[in-house]
Structure formats: C-alpha cells, structure tokens
Predict the 3D structure of the following.
Amino acid sequence: MMEEMTLADLPEVLQIEEESFASHWSEKDFRFEMTENPYAKLYVLRKDGKIVAYCDIWIIFERMEVASIAVAKEYRKQGLGYQIMQFIDQKGIENGCEFAFLEVRESNLPARELYKKCGYIDLKVKRDYYQDNHEDAYEMMKGLA
Ligand SMILES: CC(C)(COP(=O)(O)OP(=O)(O)OC[C@H]1O[C@@H](n2cnc3c(N)ncnc32)[C@H](O)[C@@H]1OP(=O)(O)O)[C@@H](O)C(=O)NCCC(=O)NCCS
C-alpha cells in the first residue's frame, strides 16, 4: 500500500534515488518537493517495513505530471512499477486531472516500456533536454478517464 512520504523516510528514499539515477536528486531537492512545492505529492511503498519504491506527482489543476518514480533495484521486474502507475492514475482522477504527462530519457527503455504499458503515448521529443549528457527527452501523455 502506498503511504504519504514523510521527512523521516528520506534516508531510505535517497538510497533508492542514488541507485536509480546517474544524475539524482539531493536531500534538499526532496525537502523542497515536500515542504515548498504546493503542487507536489510524494508517496512511498513499503514491504515488510522497508521502503522499496517511491513516486512524486504534481497536481496542477487539470494536469498531472509524474515528476519521479523509482523502484529499489532488487524489487524491480515484479510488477511494482506498474502497480505504482495505477495508483498514480487513481490520484490524478481523484484530484480532477484530465491528463497525465511525463518526461523520460530516450535511453531509459524500462521506463518507456512501463509507460507504454500504462497507456502513455509519445507526444514530442525534446532535443538535447538533459544537461548532464545532452540526451533527448520523450514527453509522454495519457488521458485520465
Ligand atoms: C522504470 C521502473 C520504475 C520500472 O519498475 P518495475 O517495478 O521494474 O516495473 P514492473 O515490474 O512493474 O514492469 C512493468 C512493465 O514495465 C516494462 N519494463 C520494466 N522493466 C523493464 C526492462 N528492464 N526492460 C524492458 N521493459 C521493462 C515492461 O513493459 C513491464 O511489463 P511486463 O512485465 O509485462 O513486461 C524501474 O526500472 C526503475 O525504478 N528504474 C530506475 C528509475 C527510473 O528510471 N525511473 C523512471 C524515470 S522517468
């Protein structure tokens, strides 16, 4: 079951963040999301008391953005990413969002496949989008029922 992320969760969340992204968010970035970004909602997924995944979504009126999702390495390929994306859809619908958007690196095939499986379509390619390696981003979107 997904629970709202608290500041006490940050050490575990940061471990997953660091093993998941070459260019990762810092504790300060998460604190900003949790305490200063009025649009952000962050959740964690626990298994046997341990945090195994998290997500950050932004609810901006009729638009939801998936800002981040990550599953701990040893828990991947077990359906958790898909489960979290269903939860995210539900949150968007509950909050009256009509559309969901996200950006993903061209090379991130696991994530792109996950999003496709969840009904996202490619909307546009943002060339040279990521500052660290100048990679393109795919902007993807789906309508929320
Ligand atoms: C992307 C990520 C969240 C997927 O989580 P997961 O729990 O492993 O995903 P699931 O087991 O629920 O898989 C659901 C679908 O995603 C796709 N998928 C997941 N891992 C994949 C892989 N290694 N290669 C290809 N497709 C993959 C498949 O379509 C899969 O469906 P299937 O099992 O029917 O083939 C996970 O790999 C992750 O945390 N990656 C690092 C962080 C990241 O890149 N986040 C996204 C940033 S935009």
